[in-house]
Amino acid sequence: MTAIYFLAVDGGGTNTRARLYDANDRLIGEGLSGSSNLTLGTEIAGPAIAAAGDAAMAAAGLAPGAKVQIRAGLGLSGGNIPALADGIAAFPFGYGALTVTSDAVTACLGAHAGQDGGIFILGTGSQGLALVDGKETSVGGWGFALGDDASGAVLGRAALRAAMLSVDQLGPVSDLTRRLLAHFHDDPNEAVIWARTATPRDYGRFAPLVFEAAGGDVVADHLIAGATGSIVAMIDRLTDLGAPRIALMGGLAEPYRPYLPVRYDEILVPPKGDALAGALALAKRGH
Fold it and tell me: Which chain regions cross the lipid bilayer (predicted)?
């Protein structure tokens, strides 16, 4: 009998992670590559996903020809947009079977072990999802240009905008704005040139500086207050959709948590598994 393998992939704005399992659920290889946010285009996301999968295969000692024995489950940022999901599904990965969905769906599957619930991902991008009675309903997740409120990319961009306002004396000067401008050698023109090619991931690198400055820095505190308001609105929407519990996930989940209302203490729960656990479930169910 030909061996069957399952490839779980979690792809976002910062990196792409892959885990390869054998038919007995034994982890046999892992891989890591760059961003596979589908809003960046198939020409960027496709090779990143392929590289992570190839690395996992190499770690497992599998030859490239074994790709036809792999059933892959891809949970990708931007996978909630049908045209983008269809585009990456057509990429010539060479796997025997492939299922594509958003990273929010796989995160939710993993967080609640397949049970009803909701998740809110706070990473380079942001997106909420409720899985209730077999129905998936997304909240946000429209990408850096049109959405991703409270995400690292949007928070980082807002911080840089505040720094530029301070240059024109249209906004306050603070330790945060000075630190941001120092990154560009105190030359706002350098920042403008940088922004011409900056990606969401590039903006997201500045988000940790906002949290580091918070608690007395007028600009940082204002930015976090605004972002927290967006998170509250989206969590409330998820509860309105019937999600009995919600898991905060992503690199900014922990930094934001102290700023959220105490009324969420009984609703917000730690995830039982991560997005890769959900991607594995997706690969197995094949739909």
Answer: none
